[in-house]
């Protein structure tokens, strides 16, 4: 008789009921600070604009927190464990998709870098007569060469930024207090990784030359 919205409920109705009756009812069943979880789910699930994979990850984690909190009271005839398992499965799927996208982005960056390296290899193997003529080329040619070098540097910078963003995100999940230290510690590792990448690109260039 006192319910804010009567059944049958949609998910939107349930979230509204949670917020309306939180202090009087649900706050006595689960920790009251979980109200922020309800507000987060309500805000994003029924927004007019789509959200990215990072927001999706947050929503799934918040859902798991809410389901886990209610599981301390009851399993609700087995429905709650099943729901928790499904949300966990979605988290794993999202993690696999995000990892695949990162790998794809890195592969595309390396491919572009390899193509530019191949162009430089071909330019380096032209006859010496052409090298002599190159000195008399229009200054715009040298500008184009400089732009190519900047493009290669941009690709490397993109690889580094991508690695850095996901490294920081990973360390934030594991230990928020370790983010600053981790960022400093991983620079040397990233430099060594780029050295290995350089060796791989060199092998590709030699293969193209053969």
TrEMBL record:
CC per GO annotation: nucleus
Superkingdom: Eukaryota
The protein, known as: SWT1 protein
The species this protein was found in: Zosterops hypoxanthus
Gene: Swt1
InterPro entries from the UniProt entry: SWT1_Regulator (IPR052626)
Transmembrane regions: none
